[in-house]
Hints:
By secondary structure, this protein is of the alpha/beta class. It is 46% helix and 18% strand. It has a five-stranded parallel sheet.
Amino acid sequence: LEREGVFSPSITRMVLEEKRRVSMIQRTKTNRVLMVVGTPITDEQGNIIRVVNASRDITEVSQLRSELEEAKQLTEGFRQEVMNLRKKNELEQKMVYRSDKMRKVVTLAHKVAEADSTVLLYGESGVGKEVIAYHIHKWSPRKNNPFITVNCGSIPEKLLEMELFGAESGDPDNPLGQMGLFKKARGGTLYLDEIAEMPLSVQNKLVWMMHENDRSGDSRKVRIIASSGKKLEDEVRTGRFREDLFYRLNVIPIEVPPLRERKEDIALLLLHFLGYYNNMYGKNKQLAADLLEKMQNHHWPGNVRELRNLSAAVRRCCSCMSG
């Protein structure tokens, strides 16, 4: 059958030749891709009397894997581009604040940066949790090692597991093998955004991976910073989040207040972002006092993200005007 091209290679032949259990990808004449495990059955004298093959059709997985590899190459390119932009545009990541509430947050972040403790950031969407996480990394001894971000709510369950933990070569769901972000972030920081959205099956593996991470040496250890817009205690009570994972993450909780609770920062942030876009586009636009006052009194449901996007919109609108 192998010679006739019905399938290739023959797992039975390989087991008989190598006299051991064989696990191999097999392709058929009909263009199917199988993950086959051949197991020898021996008699009392150790002679092989039969071979039992267990086959699993992974054609669709293999096709998905090829598409995923192409997507990952693009993603890696984008990630490198983002990292380069992050280095070039430190101004964009600058901590801008005046309020006492944010001063307390930044002071605490500065203190915990020197330690390797896990940090859990709470706060509404758009308050700047990733900026805080980035600065904790930047202020830490890990600053020259990777800072890797993954949004746990934007990636399908199976792909999220593969993205975080990778897989060994020969895994039926990942036959080519892949290094996960945990390994890529060794010596650096792994930022798990929207951790409350992580599926329970991935949470299970994360608990085990964090346990193994804690046992590793300091040079190989990954620092975990997680963030959530939801109270994880509530998610634990409803059974949507593992209690043991919550306690592993909730070592140093930091709550980032919404913009409406720190109005002293609004004008400063507006001027900062307007200056940033003026510098980027070679302009010198300014905000009228009455407009600035209206913006300070706005509720800002989208927080700093909304304010930044509005600053960009103001810059675009102003660029179309002569005055």
